[in-house]
Write a structure and sequence with these properties.
The chain is an alpha/beta fold. The chain contains seven helices and five strands. The protein has a five-stranded mixed β-sheet.
Length: 135
Amino acid sequence: MITVVEQASQSDALAPALDRMAKAGAQVVIVQPNGLFINERSTILRQALAARLPSIFDDRDAVEAGGFMSYGVNNAEGSRHAAAFVEKILKGAKPADLPIEFSTKIELVINLKTARTLGLDVPATLLARADEVIE
C-alpha cells in the first residue's frame, strides 16, 4: 500500500494536491476535519471523483454530498445535545456545574451511488455494519 500525504492550506492548493495524490498511486483520500476542507468540500468531492479516488470523511454530510464513506459522530445529534446545555444555562445553571460529555455513538455511512460511480464493490459484510447506506 502506498501512503501519500498532501497538505493544503488554501483552496487553490486542493485540486493540485488531489491530482498529485492520484498520480502518485493513492487509492483513497482520507479527508481530515478542518475549516478549509469543510468549506471546500465540493471541490474535494469533485476532484476526488475526477481522479477516481474514493473519499472518506468524518461526517455524514460529506457522504450525502457524494463522498464514498464516513465514520464519525453525528454532528446534528451533537448540536441538538448542545442546545439542551444552552437551555440549562439560560435557565440559570452554571456552566461549571454541568457535566462534561462527549459523543459515544460513532456511525458508519456508505454512499453506494458513489461506490458504483467509482467501480467499487463494497462487501456485504461492510454494508451490514453500516448505520446507513445511501442508495
